[in-house]
Amino acid sequence: MTKVEIGYHASHEQFKPSELTNYVKLAQQAGFTNALSSDHFFPWGETQGESGFAWSWLGAAMQATNMHYGIVNAPGQRYHPAIIAQAVATLCEMFPQRFWIAVGSGQFLNEHITAEKWPSKTERNQRLKECVDIMRALWAGEAVTHNGLVDVYDVKLYTLPNYIPSIVGAALTTQTAKWVGSWADAMITTSRPQEELKQMVDAFREGGGEGKPVYLKVQLSYDMTMGKAVEGAHQQWKNNVFSSSLLSDIRSPIGFDAAGAMVRPEDMKSGVRISDSADQHVEWLSRDIEAGVSQLYLHNVNLNQVKFIEDFGQKVIPQLIVKDIPAHSIV
């Protein structure tokens, strides 16, 4: 059996890159072994007010720590896949066996900046799979020319990665999870009730993901008191409690603020795990492991990162890393 891995989520929408560098160093000291980076052009609302360039930050963060890192990226519109392939290859060469990339079909919030047509979900998925195939070929040292929803002409990487990095498919619905199972090396999804999470995992395996890892980004709010945890979650994350079908097509932070304007503090528990009890978070995270999750990436959505990192290092991580991942989740 293999032990679960615990990661810290670096939220570029909420903190300056310099702050996040300090947080990942603190997270490593506390016992986190992995980190996950968001990759946005805009924050989720005007209140958050940040959105540093994740790829610049990754080089600094990976040099400052020895943790393993991943990023959630949407190649195909804002980014050409050849550029992302080159960025990934460079990080893999500099930091062997420490980097992976998760890919998704994107959100209008970030992708609209190129002023191109925003495709349907079906077309975005097709475009994403083309990007995945292009990147894998480039990492293998091939010269690539491709015409389709993405065009590539006579491209070849000269600084190659010294390993082929994992491509993790991002999925928010069972339909996407099943599709991701057919081509991804692993799946990443977001936290949800245990039965719904099990449905996501089962769909991934049915689609071809049997024996592949499942990663989980957990939205939580932990603070000194329950009141502070609720207040912090509402202030920072109320715009994100809606379904992916709505969130995918909102154009601006102002639009997200409009969507979240009617969300009350008591509504936050539908999308964020809120508790001032470390033991409660251990219980919730243990259920995720039982559902088949092999890597947990913890996103404390309020602004009190130091308390979260220190307390989870002392009270939560030691109880989770002793747990075995179910055998069917291990590659």
Report what the structure shows.
With 331 residues, the protein is α/β, with parallel strands linked by helices. The chain has 13 helices and eleven strands. It has a single domain (5-329), classed as TIM Barrel (Alpha-Beta Barrel). The strands form two sheets. An eight-stranded parallel β-barrel has the order 1-2-3-4-7-8-9-11, surrounded by eight helices.
Which features does this protein show?
two-stranded antiparallel ribbon; eight-stranded parallel β-barrel; 13 helices; alpha/beta
Within the CATH hierarchy, at the fold level, what is the topology?
Answer: TIM Barrel
Structural class, by secondary structure, is: alpha/beta
What is the number of helical segments per DSSP (H or I, 4+ residues)? 13
- The top level CATH class name: Alpha Beta
> What gyration radius follows from the Cα positions, in whole Å?
19 Å
**Can you tell me the residue ranges where pLDDT is under 50 for at least 5 consecutive residues?**
none
User: What's the overall geometry?
Assistant: globular
Q: What would you give as the CATH superfamily?
A: Luciferase-like domain
Overall tally of structural domains = 1
Termini Cα gap:
11 Å
- Share of helical residues: 40-55%
Strand order of the largest sheet: 1-2-3-4-7-8-9-11
CATH architecture: Alpha-Beta Barrel
Major pleated sheet = 8 strands, parallel, barrel
Helices and strands, in order, run as: EHEHEHEHHEEEHEHEHHHEHEHH
The overall pLDDT, averaged over residues, is: 95
